From TrEMBL, chain A:
PANTHER family: ENERGY-COUPLING FACTOR TRANSPORTER ATP-BINDING PROTEIN ECFA1, HEAVY METAL TRANSPORTER. This is Energy-coupling factor transport system ATP-binding protein. The keyword Cell membrane applies. Signal peptide: none annotated. PROSITE patterns: ABC_TRANSPORTER_1 (PS00211), ABC_TRANSPORTER_2 (PS50893). One of its GO terms (cellular component) is ATP-binding cassette (ABC) transporter complex. It is a peripheral membrane protein.
Automatic annotation (TrEMBL), chain B:
It comes from the Bacteria. Belongs to the energy-coupling factor EcfT family. It is a multi-pass membrane protein. The gene is ecfT. One of its GO terms (cellular component) is plasma membrane. Its main location: membrane. This is Energy-coupling factor transporter transmembrane protein EcfT. Transmembrane (T) component of an energy-coupling factor (ECF) ABC-transporter complex. Unlike classic ABC transporters this ECF transporter provides the energy necessary to transport a number of different substrates. The keyword RNA-binding does not apply. The lineage of its organism: Bacteria, Bacillati, Bacillota, Bacilli, Bacillales. One of its GO terms (molecular function) is transmembrane transporter activity. Keywords: Cell membrane, Membrane, Transmembrane, Transmembrane helix, Transport. It is found in: Cell membrane. The keyword Membrane applies.
Amino acid sequence: MNEPLVELKNVSFKYDAETGFALHNVSFNILKGEWLAIVGHNGSGKSTLAKLLNGLHFPLEGSITVGGIPLTEETVWETRKKIGMVFQNPDNQFVGTTVQDDVAFGLENHGIERNDMVQRVAQSLEKVKMAQFLNQEPHHLSGGQKQRVAIAGVIALRPNIIILDESTSMLDPRGREEVLETVRELKQDYHMTVISITHDLEEAAKADRILVMNRGQLYREGTPEEIFQMDEELVKLGLDIPFPVKLSKILREKGLPLSRHYLSEEELVEELWTSHSKM
Amino acid sequence: MMDKMIFGRYVPAESVLHRMDPRSKLVLIFLFVCIVFLANNMLTYGLLTVYTFLMIALSKVPIRFIYTGLKPVLLLVIFTLFLHLFLTKEGEVLFRLGWITIYEEGLRQGIFISLRFFLLILMTSILTLTTTPIEITDGLESLLAPLNKIKFPVHELALMMSISLRFIPTLMQETDKIMKAQTARGVDFSSGPIKERIKAIIPLLIPLFVSSFKRAEELAVAMESRGYRGGEGRTKYRQLSWGLKDTAMLAMLAALTLVLILLRT
């Protein structure tokens, strides 16, 4: 669990058209098997980070190493096999005309043999619970279903790492929960490392570790509990504190003896309904 | 509106034509388009008509469905008929009324040419009615594969086609959404003089274009991140299989061609 799978050293990046750095001197490690959430407001550099990790851009300075191999133009295609990415818009990453064609797209690109391909498509769709939609066309699917197909397309390539780049931000609450649940199961079954880039702190609250990005720099890193201690500071960074954290803070100010900040609604409810008997 | 258009509309059914390899269907239609021009008398046209209706019967697509779909094109066929009827001035005079004179050759030409037109449309509709667009794309890619040797981008063309096919419904949904949003803002799409209505399309087209470009860019990034780097070294998930029925169908068409050559005058 503790060996670093991805290492970033002093990474800086600038888009051609802009003068300021999108990322400036960022260094951190991603550990094998962890769920890492990268949070930050719009333009904090978190999406740029995702693109750098997948070799869609290359750092101006510094280096990125994935599984011990430096990420360069030569190694980028190998790296993309190891790192799968799910993007924000469910429609704009659906390439195939049907569900199975879309899952097969990545496999075709990597020249996987057909018999193997058929097997992997079926298996991956089974895994994300979309097997009964094999021949469905994308416009008949919900956003959450499309994202699950995208995930199937990613896991068909057997990556070690899956990056969710705002993958749930365009979904309704049910679709969001479906997608996150799927990823959680996959992480367990395949021992995958998950990097979820999000501005939804409620989603981040369930991660093992959170990185807070601000203006292209790494602002803070820590466990969700440590990060939510920052409180007002987070609001200043343009992030919204999850409702249970906010509520437990207010309740504490009102004098309720809550022992800590609660990260999930369930935890808070559990504490609240049992606390009365202690008073 | 699009529902009534017969072109590109696939009707699922279990028929020989549905199960045929898209490659053989494409070759068949292409050859048919060529041999239609061999016909030049009653007998040959009659044979072609019989063949076409035989194909419709084989496709198991309901006639009623073909008829409603063809209605808009029928107008064009009738127009062709009248054009020849009135403008050809050869042969004996059949009929004269005021300034309208109809000649024998005009009637002959009119019927033959509009019949030719009609048969062509029928046959090509049979292709699209029995073959899904993606199958047509696969068939084309496979048929055009030899052109790769002269650096013709066959794979790219096929991919472009399949992506457009995939995005048509998405863009239709989006058009619908934008239309509703603009209607809510007071744009009137359905009444007023033509000039006003054409103007009303502008606030529909501009957002559609902007979002399409954004989609295209995001799609390109997504494709690249999934390892797409052109046709080289790519394997194919969809497979085509040429069967006995494909050879048989083509043999039948070859026989028809031979008969046409023998019977034409």
